[in-house]
Design brief:
5 helices, 145 residues, alpha+beta
Length: 145
Amino acid sequence: MPKLSPTQAPEVKLDAGAAAVEVSLSVEQRRGLFERPGTTVVAIVELTSKSYTGHAEGEEKEPQVKVRITGCEVARSDAEATTLLEAKRAMWRARRMDGTLDEVGPGPRDAGSVIADAFADYPNEREYQDYQRVKEQARRDEFVR
């Protein structure tokens, strides 16, 4: 793994793979982005580093890392968007107060706790898996008849 000096902060570039975003957008959101320039959608994204440059000692090239969006969920309602934006603002305030606004990497706060209450009524992973099993069993039962 490349190691940077404490004074170096690599430039982050987004690579062309944005399929995770596209599949998360509803048809209505896609049309809105196209038909009404300036439209905003709010999303939670996962970024995964895919390549880096400028890591060799003595190399003059500035360090750079390319990231790809490997997961994305887009808010489907105004309430979800408002909650995600408030979580973003809360995380920003925490970084600002902790003096970590310019730091790279995980901060001292647990982002999950910021939105846990707002999404408490959403299905958890076990409930989703149960739903998937029931759905698959119903599909199989349809063929048995």
